[in-house]
Write a structure and sequence with these properties.
The chain is globular, with a radius of gyration of 23 Å. A hairpin with a 2-residue loop joins strand 1 and strand 2. By secondary structure, the protein is of the alpha/beta class.
Length: 359
């Protein structure tokens, strides 16, 4: 393998510039502008779809399958408690600090420079390469991969989805089902509480029933479906019986149930609630047994695992693994960072992985 140090240094430099450009979900235009300008300066042909950017390897070989490299350019809002400005962080000799540096900027620059390395060093790969930098991932937006997949999946056969996994390969990930629940009652003055129906009490009963709900089917690869009530809201004054209580249910699904089946189970457990799923599309994902991506991970000794977090993988219908530099435990937290050495290691391992795809 040719010396990649200059590529990893360039990747770190690009990430530092990216962090300084706010790119919260639904507001990625400036970062997309910046990346398109960078690609133009590098002489790399690309196509922009909204705030998504797609590059294809020159001189594709029609006899080879297409591997898509994907990472997202958006971030969450900055968490409270930062000890420095999240978009104007201090310099650090060992780390790149700032919002989105770990999730998902490190994967963006590593996959971008993997793509550049493959072209500039004229790697003889067993696959053609496509790079898709997507937006709106953190908010499951309609104009991110949900839209882009209709374009990229015309030609892409399988994918590596870049997320902070410590360069382990997630070969399955749980899905996400977020449900808004409302229990309705009858308002009354607290001095005449018998005239009312307390919506909070109805919600408490519903929440207890949901807490005890058993999902009987267990996924061999992903284990149990997990349900948590994470938000609740009710009441207008201390002396008024509340006529409405709303709460939010977060469910990490497996391939044992469809999202529609989960909704049916919720309705049976809590019939006193009005239940509405925010999105039924965020399904669980798993790499098919015997797929080239799995065989490649096995050959290279890449550690595999089941991921509890979601990504753009759940929006794809092609086989994939999730793998990237950084640590998921740093994501969405104050004082986010990624080590420079993690970017160098990620670039090296991505190049090794795509060079050894076991078709």
């Amino acid at each position: 393998m040719s010396d990649i140090s200059k590529y990893s240094e360039a990747a770190c430099s690009l990430l530092s510039e990216m962090v300084a450009i706010p790119s919260e979900s639904f507001h990625e235009a400036r970062r997309a502008d910046f990346l398109c300008s960078f690609l133009k300066d590098e002489g790399l042909d690309h196509t922009r779809y909204g705030n998504n950017i797609v590059l294809r390897q020159p001189a594709e070989d029609p006899s080879k399958p297409m591997l898509m490299l994907n990472a997202h350019i958006d971030t969450v809002a900055a968490a409270s408690g930062y000890s420095f400005d999240p978009i104007n962080p201090p310099a650090d000799k060992d780390r790149i600090l700032g919002l989105g540096s770990n999730d998902d900027g490190a994967s963006v620059v590593c996959l971008l420079f993997t793509f550049i390395y493959a072209i500039r060093e004229r790697l003889e790969l067993p696959v053609n390469l496509m790079l898709a930098l997507s937006c709106e991932e953190e908010r499951s937006g309609e104009n991110g991969m949900r839209m882009l997949r209709r374009i990229v999946e015309r030609d892409a056969d399988f994918a590596i989805v870049g997320e902070p996994t410590g360069m382990k390969a997630a070969i399955a990930e749980k899905g996400l089902l977020v449900v808004d629940a409302v229990c309705e009652g009858v308002s009354a003055h607290c001095a005449h509480a018998a005239l009312g129906v307390n919506a909070i009490y109805k919600a408490v009963n519903a929440i207890n029933a949901l807490k005890d709900l058993e999902f009987g089917r267990i996924s061999p690869s992903m284990g149990h479906t997990r349900l948590n009530v994470t938000q609740i809201d009710a009441g207008t004054a201390h002396n008024v019986i509340p006529d409405s209580c709303s709460f939010v249910i977060d469910i990490r699904t497996t391939d044992s149930y469809t999202n529609e089946e989960v909704m049916e189970l919720l309705a049976e457990a809590a019939p006193q609630c009005i239940l509405k799923a925010r999105n039924l599309l965020n399904h669980a994902s798993a790499t098919p047994q015997g797929h080239p991506l799995l065989k490649t991970a096995e050959k290279l000794g890449v550690e595999t695992y089941v991921s509890p977090t979601t990504s753009d993988w759940m929006r794809l219908s092609i086989p994939a693994v999730k793998m990237g530099p950084g640590d998921s435990n740093r994501s969405h937290k104050a004082d986010e960072f990624v080590y420079r050495d993690e970017i160098a290691d990620g670039l090296k391992k991505y190049i090794e992985f795509i060079s050894n795809i076991q078709l």
